[in-house]
Amino acid sequence: MLDINNLSLSFGTQKVLQKLTISLQQGEIGCILGPSGCGKTTLLRAIAGFKSVQAGSISVNDIIVSDAGYKMPVAKRKIGVVFQDFALFPHMNVLKNVAYGLSKLSKSEALKLAQEAIELVGLNDAKSKYPHELSGGQQQRVAIARAIAPKPDLLLLDEPFSSLDPDLRERLSSEIRSIIKQQNITALLITHDQTEAFAMADKIGVLHHQQCQQWGTAYDLYHEPATEFIADFVGEGVFIPVQVVAYENDSESKIEASDDKLLWLETQLGRFLLPQEYIDNAAFKVGDIAKMLVRPDDLRHQDESVLKAKVVGRSFRGAHILYRLSLNQGEPLLCLAPSHHDHQIGESFGIHLEVEHVICFPY
Amino acid sequence: MIKTALKGSAFTIYSVLAGLLLGLPLFVIFFSFFSWDTAIWQHLAATVLPKYISNSLMLAFGVGFGATILGTCLAWLIVNYNFYGRRLIQWMVLLPLAMPAYIIAYTYTGLLDFAGPLQTFIRGTFDLGAQDYWFPEVRSLSGAIILMSLVLYPYVYILARTAFSEQSQKYREVSELAGVSPLKHFFKVALPLARPAIMTGAALAMMEALADFGTVEYFGVSTFTTGIYRTWFGMGDIKAASQLSGFLCLFVFILIMVEKMSRRDSQNYSSRQGKSAQAKQVNGINGILIFVLCSLPVAFGFIIPFVQLATWALSFSDLSNLADYPEYAMNSAMLASIGAIVVVAMALLFSYAKRLHPSKTVSGFIQLVSLGYALPGTVIAIGVLVPLGWLDIKLNVMTNVWFDFQPGLVFSGTVFALIFAYAIRFMSVALNNTEAGIQRIKPSMDEASKVLGDSPTQRLLRIHIPLLKASLLSATLLVFVDILKELPATLVLRPFNFNTLAVKAFELASDERLIDAALPSITIVLVGILPVIILTKTLDGIERKYA
């Protein structure tokens, strides 16, 4: 549906994005996640057609809408945009705002489509109200209704919930998601808020250093981050130092040669098999020092474990407590334990590392 | 504690007393209108009233329309297009503000009448006689409408420009996404959003048109202001004059309502979000076209009359007429200086009283004394004359009885009456500055000064006045220039044989001595450019804020 291929964007001589490639299937919701100033708004404006592209291409429904020499007019693209500040027209009521993009249709048809869109976002009672009479959440719904009323091929949402308070943000985001899904609309949203991205999106791309570091599901991003930046940026976790060693299969005796290619990662918390893809890529060799990602949920609370870590910090999160632990004065570790395992700072408890996805990077 | 409270209430008492004093002429006009004299009205209705009403309304609506068209188009072009010479145009476009309507009126009369350069040129070139061709008469109602639109359009332009430049870039993008053409976007979004601001500007321009005396008197168009002047000066009938003034005030109050309502609307309409619209670069022929289009109003509203005035002043002026120039220039400077200082000082005290004790009473009086800007000078003059004349009579009777001595017209026949009238007419100009300035001073400043032991008076002298220096200066300058330009109230209230630049320019022009009138006129215009420069800087500041 949406295919962005090797896209490069720049402002004058300043490069904003380089070689970005992402794609969305019909009905999928994508999300571009990144800190402010990373170029995500620029990307959105390029897709909408407000900005020309320097290299690569953007296609919607297999038709190229932008490439280095061509920019399809904005109005021809059939793209809807929900702006960050909503950009509702203050002199028009809700119905007129929503019907604004339907002026090409006959009056009755425009009215019908606008009514449908308003009903969809649940604002039937506020049809004749003006934007300044609406709450932030209602304004947001109007903005969505206006964007989807013309039945666009692609819906773009620019930080759609950033001006709402956190409580409303969560409620509205799941509601908006179900509307988009129900209408089978393909949508791309941009945000700096991970929870929003995880709540809304099927596929997420993280922008950093002018590049899309990874394009995948929230699960992939969290459990199989492609770069160190993503590992650090998405979710919580720490890196622990590891050494690459070679052992004979399941044996305790270290071997010098690595003919059988069985490499292990030796850590304070145990030994883990280096996954095959690292070996295929020849990413590490015996003797290398690397760092391994440990998520708080990888580290289990286990009373019988011989490894005892001291609590140096804790934050209560309802069902769980996130502990900050210190093991042999080493790097702090994070452990998410069920909250009935209640330990105070200074106490020690047994821990056990269980890593399903071994992720490591060069030190 | 008690002492502090008393000092604070001293400012409140001031604002009540000063408010009552400045409100007095308003009450006089108001009540005289309600002490309806049927005989006077029957006479007026049978003779001049229909003409006054129709001419005044046509003038007001004509000027409102003309100023709206010119101001809105200019603002739209300048906000949305970046063309070669735009910065120059941005500055020049406000220049007509420096050109009083009565001065542009007689300048164009001189330019366009039978013996003027244009008609002489036409006759010479095409070898025509006096009766062989038709030429529009400048000295007419439509002439007044056109000329006043040319100098009053900046009222609309300033507000429309701010409104257009505040409009978020996103609005244009929404239209683009919806496939709405730029022209349709202008009529469906940009113009409706700027409508309250444009209406406010139009209402202000219409107030000025209703208030005008010099142009219509010179052109022989009978309106309320000329009627009031003639009724008082010609017939000495103060009663009829004040009833006419009251009638004129009805129209003015409608305009004030329109203005206030539009201002409120524009607050609802201002979005203040996101980046404002970016100007589109236009080069080549189109750029030149826009430049020429934008320079037309200022060319006709300022440059052409200015050049004509300068030519007259420099080359044709009779040197013997120069002899009394220093005298009336000095009179003007003195009057404007005293007036400006008095008005700004009073405004400062009003604003400070409101800050010390923000009560409904003080705010109410501030609103009352800010109404004067809308009232025509002629009306204010009558409103000042009635109570001061009464006071002078009583005073003379009293001193005659007690001391066998008559001091004469101590209040109504001196500079006092003039300053009084100026204070009413220009208080809002000064208040705008002092109010805005004082709001920028953080409340913590006052608290710090209070904690450190300052009395309210000390605080005013040590904290507020030093911090307000810039606002006070610009207020003083604005009022100074306004007084310098003011004609009708000065004409009615000035002491016998007391001439100012404005009065002299008007009298010389009325005597068909246009060339001699050029020197005092161009003096007024040149001084009038100063506030235009300040205004340009302020507007640039606003625009940068939203860029």
TrEMBL record, chain A:
Which InterPro entries does the protein's record reference?
Answer: AAA+_ATPase (IPR003593), ABC_SmlMolc_Importer (IPR050093), ABC_transporter-like_ATP-bd (IPR003439), ABC_transporter-like_CS (IPR017871), ABC_transpr_FbpC (IPR015853), Mo/tungstate-bd_C_term_dom (IPR008995), P-loop_NTPase (IPR027417), Transp-assoc_OB_typ2 (IPR013611)
ABC transporter domain spans which residues? 2-234
Alphabetically sorted, this entry's keywords are: ATP-binding, Cell membrane, Ion transport, Iron, Iron transport, Membrane, Nucleotide-binding, Transport
Question: What GO MF terms are annotated?
Answer: ABC-type ferric iron transporter activity; ATP binding; ATP hydrolysis activity
A Gene Ontology cellular-component term? ATP-binding cassette (ABC) transporter complex
Instruction: Give one GO biological process term.
Output: quaternary ammonium group transport
Q: Does the keyword Transmembrane helix apply?
A: no
Cited Pfam families: ABC_tran, TOBE_2
Q: Which domain of life is it from?
A: Bacteria
Query: Per its record, how is this protein called by name?
Result: Spermidine/putrescine import ATP-binding protein PotA
Species this chain originates from: Brumicola pallidula DSM 14239 = ACAM 615
What is the gene called? Answer: potA
TrEMBL record, chain B:
Entry's Gene Ontology BP terms: transmembrane transport
Membrane-traversing stretches: 12-36, 56-79, 91-109, 141-160, 197-220, 240-258, 288-313, 333-353, 365-390, 410-431, 467-484, 517-536
| UniProt keyword terms in alphabetical order | Cell membrane, Membrane, Transmembrane, Transmembrane helix, Transport
Q: Domain (ABC transmembrane type-1): give its ranges.
A: 53-259, 329-535
Q: Does the keyword Transmembrane helix apply?
A: yes
Q: Which InterPro entries match?
A: MetI-like, MetI-like_sf
The text of the family note is: Belongs to the binding-protein-dependent transport system permease family.
Q: What is this protein called?
A: Iron(III) transport system permease protein
This chain's source organism reads Brumicola pallidula DSM 14239 = ACAM 615
Q: What is the lineage of its organism?
A: Bacteria, Pseudomonadati, Pseudomonadota, Gammaproteobacteria, Alteromonadales
